[in-house]
Amino acid sequence: METALTVKNEEFGGELIQLVSFNLEKEEYGINVLMVREIIRMLNITRVPNTPRYVEGVINLRGKVIPIISLRRKFDLMEAEYDKRTRIMVMEVVGELMGFIVDEVSEVIRISEKEIQPPPPVVSSGIEQECMSGVINQADRLLVLLDLERMFSADERRLFGNVG
Amino acid sequence: MAIDCEDQELLDGFLAETTELLEKLDDDLISLEKSPEDAELMNRIFRSIHTVKGASSFLGFDMLVKVTHKTEDVLNRLRKGELKLNPEIMDVVLEAVDLVKTLVADIKGGDIVERDLEGTISKLIPFLSENAVEATVLAPVFTTAKEPSPPPPAEPAQAFAGAAEAPPSKEAAAADRALAKAAAPAVQPKAQPIKEPAKSPAKGGEELADNSTVRVDVKRLDDLMNQVGELVLERNRMIQLHSDYQTGLDPAGFSDDFGKLSKRLNFVTSELQMQVLKMRMLPVEKVFKKFPRIVRNLARDLGKEVDLVIIGEETELDRSVVDEIGDPLIHLIRNALDHGLETPDQRLCAGKNRTGTVVLSAAHEGNQIVISIKDDGRGIDPEKVSRKAIEKGLITEEQLASMGTREILDLLFLPGFSTKEQATDLSGRGVGMDVVRTNIRKLNGIIEIKNDVGRGSEFILKLPLTLAIIQSLLVEVEREVYSIPLASVIETMRVSKSEFHMIGGQEVLKLRDSVLPLLRLQQTFGCQEVYRERDTCYVVIVGVAEKRIGLIVTRLLGQQEVAIKSLGKFLSNLPGIGGSTIMGDGRVALIVDPMGLIGGSEAAGARK
Fold first, then answer.
1. Contact at CB, B575 and A51, closer than 8 angstroms
2. A22-79 residue pLDDT tens
3. Please, what CATH class does the domain formed by B8-208 belong to?
4. Domain B284-464 in this protein, CATH class
5. In A, which residues are within 8 Å of B524 by CB distance?
């Protein structure tokens, strides 16, 4: 995230970063826009046997086969039916393209780096502490900033195969 | 020091040309040693090194010039007959060529590192002095004087320089000659250190010959262009057809036209596929040509006499296979020389020729390439193999009792296995054969061992021609589609579930006169059962190496040529899944890895 597209902003006195915000179980999350390659609608997912539960399978993204991960399952949230708002966010994580299923993608927002607060020590939902890189507390909304690179613990990477 | 070269194109050209020349040079030098009288060969070698020298001086690579210049001088004397070629000169020349390779690799890497040239150059110098004929005999004496460990660059270089500067007086030389002769047989093991410095540059030399750029026959390129032209025509036709259809001009004939179009498109793309595949093909010579050099060095280190015969080096195979096959072959050749062949004396005692023969051959066989390494040495003693395996605790006595000769030979591939009492520089650490097996598995290949105790052994590798596109059998497992590589499918059959039997918790099928273990893909892959009521199903019998297993599937969908797509790093280690492919409807189908399944079922059996 160090490579974030940053814009000097005199008013805020901090650097602006752009986030893609998406919803999961009525909570709002943000991911640095530079991580996101594209956002696509649900496609036919081919199930891959013997993988962790949160690996939904693989899809054909214009000739490239990429794994798809259900963020709901990853975060131990309730399962939900896919509907017309469900999206796959294709991101580059540790050098590999991966898709993440989210309930809905809402918008791209600009915030000043100064607005990012460290994550609160206790998180009630299943989201692992290390995935959260901060929270953004604006008047009418609360955004959880995710760092997907940190999402895959060393153990999971080993289980997945050898990464890095 | 970074490279300061204004003309990048010039530099690229230089690197490409030099790399090619150097690759050829190794080969030529080894042939020269076998037929020192071949003037044409001698001239070719001389020309190559001269070209490298000229080009590097033009581009201002001083270090390269220095080394090539001295090498050229030595070669020149050989050419004029002032020097007579002997193994010592060859060693030094080869070392110099290795150094040149290292330097070129440095340039390629974009950074010129200050390297120690004196060590090599000072070894060349003795052959240049007027008394060079005597000087040649001094060479072994130098070797014995050298420290056994790979020398730190500066110090021995000075020692050498000193030795070289001292004018070799006739008497001293004569005495040395006598000494060298007497010491010659005993020196053999000590001669090894001379290889040490040569080895590290050789590594650089291997990297030098990377396959990042391709040279393609212009004719092939033209053919390809033609095909692409046709493809463009067909595309235009398709666009036309679509717009006709949309304007509703010719709805009746649409289906007919579309049928024709897809036929032509099919034809053009398969042609195109062939062309591209051909462009990816490399003659296996690319790998084979470094072996004469390796065999020569090994033979000298081991004190054995070896004739390497190479057959079928023009056989072409996919570059991805070429890249992977080098390492396993090196291990197999090392084994053949180290374990297989006997020393000249032992050979004479056994009533064989002094010189052992290693035959390296490649040939096409159907959709596969078959590479074999055959030696006429002592063969593999199953007795010794099984004893070692028990000693190392790799198997138990009971296990051994139930093993056939074939299975015993397969023990060779276990990690940690080595029959050598002592790990040498060359082999004996027990990793070699494991590397071979791993790499061959990666290529979906098969290894066979033919063994004739006392007369030699043969390792046969069967590899697919390409890794990118394979013929596959599409099967359905409870509504999920899987693709099984046709290369490993032996037969398919429709059976009723009542024909299955259980033996020790394992489902089996009586097939003619053998008993075939079965694997329910539905269970292995955890698919949801949809068709509970069906009482017939299909069994796909797959084989990997000598093992056979029947995979139970719901139905067979047909045969299709599929392009293999990687599942990415995250999903690369799934048991039983070798990759994926994209079907006609855009969906992804997983490719079954029979090797993984067979290994997996064994592990599962052991757990029970």
1. no
2. 998 888 889 989 889 999 999 889 999 888 888 899 999 888 889 999 988 888 888 8
3. mainly alpha
4. alpha beta
5. 49
